[in-house]
Design brief:
Alpha-Beta Plaits, alpha+beta, five-stranded antiparallel β-sheet, 2 domains, 5 helices
Length: 235
Amino acid sequence: MRKLSEMVILCSIILASTSFGAECDSLRLITVQGDAVISVPPDKVKITLGLESREDKLDKAKYRVDSLMSVVKSLAGELGIPEKNLRTEQYLVLPANPKRTKHVVKATVVATITDLTVFSQFLSRAIDVGVDEIRDVSFQLTDPLAVRIQAREQAAEAARRKAEAILKTLGAGLGKVNSVVDIQVDDYLATSGRASYNAYAVRERPELSEESEPAIAVGQIEEHASVRVSFEIAQ
């Protein structure tokens, strides 16, 4: 019985020592947060065009919208925009009924332009040929992952330099990495610059000449990154 008690006491001492050692190890860490912001110009733009026709005859309403879609396709070809970069996102037919006296046909066409030098020209000429609405202009990146990686590399480097500076002041050295946490922030790349307006209103403004182009600034897209790193403190 006495030997059993001695073994229990011994095990308790070992466990306590192990716990204390682990606690001491945790005290030999330094945890810092590195932040970085990268600003890059967009390399593509998505333009959403709204087409709509209201007529007494369904065939006439459908013909106008279909004709506009063909004109937009031809316009894209003239400006070197590949056909694969045009997508019909919506095509809606609403026949007349007791509550709606006109037949309505609507279509939404999305154009992706990778040559930003023709962006303004495409926008202006789309309005000129009769597109009813420019619903959205969204500036984006072809490879957003590359920018995200670059931002996190810079954030990790900022964390390392910050830890080194603190430990140098305290007369200690930087050891190996203990843990890394990528802190999630708002997805700035998905929330790129946007603009929208009614094409009828643009056509009706008397101060606009045929050569006028919408003054939409391309600007920059920002990616924010934050990384929390724990380093061991070298003895």
